[in-house]
Design goal:
The chain is of the alpha/beta class. The protein is built from 21 helices and 10 strands. Strands 1-2-3-4-7-8-9-10 form an 8-stranded parallel beta sheet. The chain has a two-stranded antiparallel sheet with strand order 5-6. Helix 8 links the parallel strand 2 and strand 3. Helix 8 packs parallel to helix 9. The protein is globular and about 85 Å long.
């Protein structure tokens, strides 16, 4: 029973959910960390972990107090200092403020659980907001202890509402050993069942991963983004480490993995003045980098029981990617590639044609022309760049991609329709787009409008009701149960999720 009479109201979203006749599972909602409570918990946890100054070090590298450790340091720099250090403009005014009820809801698990039905949502998987980049902290000791502390806090405060809400565990991945340790702590000790990894690790070029105590070039600047002397490790292709032991442990512990790494602060998204410039397309860019690294690194082939969620970037980039993959495979698989082999050129015929048709400068040096056509470029170290996939056909290639990657799409994303346009996709196979509310963030001014906005694609004729069911129910359930079939046991959607999986098995 609500103390304030807030829950169980007749809302448009609740009415829509009733008409749908199937559950709505939020694959990616967001809670907002409550600074004072979280600070005290982290301080206690760090003290118990034996690190006297770990909490303070966490704060110094952009821990809990975002305003003090990220926004204010950037704001104190002069324009000349920003240009001299190329200090990336960080997010600002990034949390909802106009709707006080919604703001409090994102902070309070009990209030969110009470209101969830009014939002038309049956179950929500929740990700952090201010501490989203904790897995990217470069100080190894702080990174690992901070992730464990945040996971322990989330497990404690959300445990009473497990029938409607579950928080993700943050698992750092700078090395396979730390990833396995963090995973085992989260799953075996804390009982968390949803896992978020750092899908992109920033590593210095020409050296090992940054160790304990590593700091940004300018300590006044936020510890995020890639400098010119860094590269991105997507944990698959050309990785610093062999992550197969970690992937194997994920399969053993029955978890699906989601990446939520932002793409601001590296590549073309390093404006020193515009957050919007840095934000637009940033998650799509980071998800694309992770996806290609895992795919070309053969991870989906070696671990057929493992699925990956790529969140908040939408699915438009993935539609283009799957088309590009098939097109490139068609032209550059190891057999077709021979039509590009420069040794196949008939040099004598080419020279005769130059002599007959190449006037002036184009035939001035026939000896030089002969040399340019006979001097072959060095043979590549590996001719088959698809070798790790072991695919010999388009169908095999798609089987390693389509059922293995899930794409988090927000309610206001019109490109969701592209994921279900099977006739326009390779092999006619829809991509697995998942409903992601993003509640708790600035782009959700009214939580009550989330489901209604998503359903506009149906009302406008871009999605069928069957497509919408896949988007808000089928694909989120498939992703989270791809590792742990009983993921939804004890929740309000247990029976419907089990029925869906049985339905899939019968096809």
């Amino acid at each position: 029973m609500s103390l304030l009479g807030i829950g169980s109201r007749a809302t448009k979203a609740a009415a829509l959910r009733e008409r749908l006749g199937h559950p709505v599972v939020d694959a990616d909602g967001h809670y907002i960390e409550t600074g004072p409570a979280l600070k005290e918990f982290v301080r206690e946890y760090a003290r118990d972990a034996g690190g006297g100054d770990l909490a303070e070090r966490f704060e110094r590298v952009g821990g809990i107090d975002y305003d003090e450790t990220v926004l204010r340091p950037w704001s104190r720099l002069s324009d000349a200092e920003r240009r001299a250090t190329w200090a990336t403009r960080p997010p600002w005014w990034s949390l909802p403020a106009a709707n006080s009820l919604d703001r409090a809801t994102a902070h309070l698990p009990g209030l969110l659980a009470e209101r969830l039905g009014d939002l038309g949502i049956d179950f929500a998987v929740l990700y952090p907001s201010r501490t989203l980049t904790t897995t990217a902290i470069r100080d190894a000791e702080v990174r690992q202890v901070a992730c464990r502390a945040l996971n322990a806090f989330a497990a404690e405060v959300y445990r009473p509402y497990a029938d409607r809400l579950t928080p993700v565990a943050q698992v750092p991945t700078h090395t396979p050993a730390e990833a396995i340790a963090g995973l085992e702590h989260a799953v075996l000790e804390l009982g968390l069942k949803a896992v978020m990894i750092n899908g992109l690790v920033h590593r210095p070029i020409g050296g090992a991963a940054a160790g304990p105590g590593a700091q940004p070039q300018d300590p006044r600047l936020p510890n995020w983004g890639s400098g010119s002397g860094e590269r991105l490790d997507g944990l698959g292709l050309d990785s610093e480490h062999d992550y197969d032991p970690f992937w194997r442990r994920c399969v053993e512990l029955r978890v699906a993995l989601a990446s939520h790494a932002p793409g601001m602060g590296w590549g073309s998204r390093r404006s020193i003045s515009s957050y919007m410039h840095n934000h637009v397309g940033s998650f799509a860019a980071s998800m694309d980098a992770t996806c290609k690294s895992l795919f070309f690194g053969g991870v989906t082939r070696r671990f057929p029981g493992l699925s990956f969620g790529l969140l908040e970037g939408g699915v438009g980039w993935a539609v283009q990617l799957v088309h590009d993959l098939v097109g490139h495979f068609e032209k550059r698989n190891v057999r077709a590639l021979q039509h590009l082999n420069p040794s196949r050129i008939d040099v004598e015929l080419v020279l005769k044609l130059f002599e007959a048709y190449g006037g002036g400068r184009l035939r001035a040096d026939l000896a030089g022309l002969r040399d340019s056509f006979t001097r072959l470029e060095p043979a590549p170290p590996e001719l088959d760049e698809w070798k790790a996939l072991g695919a010999t056909s388009e169908d095999e290639l798609l089987e390693l991609f389509v059922p293995r990657f899930y794409f988090g799409c927000e309610a206001d994303d019109p490109t969701v329709a592209w994921a279900f346009a099977g006739r326009l996709l390779p092999g006619g196979r829809p991509l697995r787009a998942m409903f992601s509310s993003d509640l708790g963030h600035w782009d959700v001014p009214d939580m009550g409008e989330i489901l209604l906005e998503a359903h506009e694609l149906v009302e406008d004729g871009h999605l069928s009701e069957a497509d919408f069911r896949e988007f808000v129910f089928g694909n989120p359930v498939r992703f989270y149960t791809s590792g742990k079939r009983d993921f939804f046991r004890g929740t309000g959607v247990e029976a419907q999720a089990e029925a869906l999986l049985a339905e899939d098995a019968g096809r």
